[in-house]
From TrEMBL:
Keyword Membrane: yes
Compartment annotation: Membrane
Family stated for the protein in its record: Belongs to the major facilitator superfamily. Sugar transporter (TC 2.A.1.1) family.
Keyword Repressor found: no
Protein's name in the database: Sugar carrier protein C
PROSITE patterns according to UniProt: MFS, SUGAR_TRANSPORT_1, SUGAR_TRANSPORT_2
Domain Major facilitator superfamily (MFS) profile: 26-478
PANTHER family: SOLUTE CARRIER FAMILY 2, FACILITATED GLUCOSE TRANSPORTER, SUGAR TRANSPORT PROTEIN 1
InterPro entries: MFS_dom, MFS_STP/MST-like_plant, MFS_sugar_transport-like, MFS_trans_sf, STP/PLT_plant, Sugar/inositol_transpt, Sugar_transporter_CS
One Pfam family linked to the record: Sugar_tr
Length: 522
């Protein structure tokens, strides 16, 4: 791994540029796109523990919970309709991200964010006024379309705007927004659940209009990225914008490389088909495996269903929502650690450290739940110290995720793709993420019912696999300009075999030049 402090690529390129107030504010506003995703993750888990909400829409779940027909705590929330309510959003996001690829490429990153905000707003409005389950599910589908557009465009926007030395920290603003959204949702659920008359859930669901407005207004005031302007033929405008973003007049070398990358991308008529070419094998592998592994850390299970999980472990409704707030605070704090460390310590260090931390915590939580609940799911009386131990280790687990796989699962894919396949590859990244989020959400409650405490060991197994994968196959991308990223594949022990010189002629552009082997990255 290269030393701290940011390195240029192997051919020695280091573009001049500062972290200007303009680019900082721009990236903060754009990163707010993560709020809609985070708010939704937090709100849906909390709302599904609110008694009035269950009575109105999911009576069978409420009856099972109240009558306590089964003392088996593992199975009290096992309902396909309830699961469909939660996971329909991710199916919609998967479909939207495929369409969003074309919008992002042809119309720019900002318009994709705008569509995301408007669709999310419409979904929140329908959910807030929902009278029947079908309205809830239509609202969730619209929310999903909004998230598909936002998650496609925001990480790309951030990676293209940020100076390469600070790209990690600025890009993780997206994940920070997701964690802040989750925390806000958990706090609101806690207070809205106390409203007399049982209509607090409407405020929880309708409240999603606020983050939707933030991203909608934000997308109208943000500038386009120079990469996107060049891609759409606005070359001189892009040069002026690059000078403003970098805070220096000497942007000629970076500008030439962006233009060369754009020219190369215009020769690509079918970016989707091109992804299958041999030279894009490493990019395609990362676009699929990183989001796949991110979902199989088990984090969404904790965050979606933290209130349900804590309720199951034996906390009351109120206490379980409060515990979800605690995990939300940990999530935000640990993401700040990632922002501080990602450009200092590198991506690989955070991935590997987070993996070890999550593995230990999953083993401890599985042992704790297994010891008390056994296989019949009837814990008897749970002592206070026991509940505190479970929450403590879940919090350490959340921290491990929030400074590793959480932010880096979005950052690394968005910074490794060459311009000619960037939108298509980012779509695959978001689609795979949403597909596995959907599958995990769809089967989690059933798996909890059948695998019981073994569910945590199921996810722990994948944490081991993903850590091995990172150790051997993911090169360090810290401090390397986004249009020079092919260098890391060229000097990698395994991926270099896919990067023939004939694919990357010496022309000083985004494609790799022969000069220098670059840092040894594994």
């Amino acid at each position: 791994m290269p030393a701290a402090g940011g390195i240029g690529p192997g051919n020695g390129k280091e573009y001049p540029g500062n972290l200007t107030p303009f680019v900082t504010i721009t990236c903060i506003v754009a990163a707010m796109g993560g709020l809609i995703f985070g708010y939704d993750i937090g709100i849906s888990g909390g709302v599904t523990t609110m008694t009035p909400f269950l009575q109105k829409f999911f009576r069978e779940v409420w009856e099972k919970k109240e009558a306590n027909k089964s003392t088996n705590q593992y199975c009290q929330y096992d309902s396909q309709t309830l699961t469909m309510f939660t996971s329909s959003l991710y199916l919609a996001a998967l479909l939207a991200s495929l369409v969003a690829s074309t919008v992002t490429r042809k119309l720019g990153r900002r318009l994709s964010m705008l569509f995301g905000g408007l669709l999310f707003f419409a979904g929140a409005l329908i959910n807030g006024f929902a009278k029947a389950v079908w309205m809830l599910i239509v609202g969730r589908l619209l929310l999903g379309f909004g998230i598909g557009f936002a998650n496609q465009s925001v990480p790309l926007y951030l990676s293209e705007m940020a100076p390469y030395k600070y790209r990690g920290a600025l890009n993780i603003g997206f994940q920070l927004s997701i964690t802040v959204g989750i925390l806000i949702a958990n706090v609101l659920n806690y207070f809205f659940a106390k409203i007399k008359g049982g209509w607090g859930w409407r405020l929880s669901l309708g409240g999603a209009m606020v983050p939707a407005l933030i991203i909608t207004v934000g997308s109208l005031v943000l500038p386009d990225t120079p990469n996107s302007m060049i891609e759409r033929g606005r070359t001189e405008e892009a040069r002026a914008k690059l000078k403003k973003i970098r805070g220096v007049d000497d942007v000629d070398e970076e500008f030439r490389d962006l233009v060369s990358a754009s020219d190369a991308s215009k020769l690509v008529e079918h970016p989707w088909r091109n992804l299958l070419q041999r030279k894009y094998r490493p990019h395609l592998t990362m676009a699929i495996l990183i989001p796949f592994f991110q979902q199989l850390t088990g984090i969404n299970v904790i965050m979606f269903y933290a209130p349900v999980l804590f309720n199951t472990i034996g906390f009351g409704d109120d206490a379980s929502l409060m515990s979800a707030v605690i995990t939300g605070v940990v999530n935000v704090a640990a993401t700040l650690v990632s922002i501080y460390g990602v450009d200092k310590w590198g991506r690989r260090f955070l991935f590997l450290e987070g993996g070890v931390q999550m593995l230990i915590c999953q083993a401890v939580v599985a042992a704790c739940i297994g010891a008390k609940f056994g296989t019949n799911g009837n814990p008897g009386d749970l002592p206070k110290w026991y509940a505190i131990v479970v929450v403590l280790f879940i919090c350490i687990y959340v921290a491990g995720f929030a400074w590793s796989w959480g932010p880096l699962g979005w950052l690394v894919p968005s910074e490794i793709f060459p311009l000619e396949i960037r939108s298509a590859a980012q779509s695959i990244n978001v689609s795979v993420n949403m597909m596995f989020t959907f599958l995990v959400a769809q089967v989690f409650l059933t798996m909890l019912c059948h695998l019981k405490f073994g569910l945590f060991m199921f996810f722990a197994f994948f944490v081991v696999i993903m850590s091995i994968f990172v150790y051997y196959f993911l090169p360090e991308t810290k401090g390397i300009p986004i249009e020079e990223m092919n260098q890391v594949w060229k000097s990698h022990w395994y991926w270099s075999r896919f990067m023939e010189d004939l694919d990357y002629p010496i022309n000083g552009n985004s494609e790799m030049s022969k000069g220098g082997q670059g840092p040894k990255l594994v």
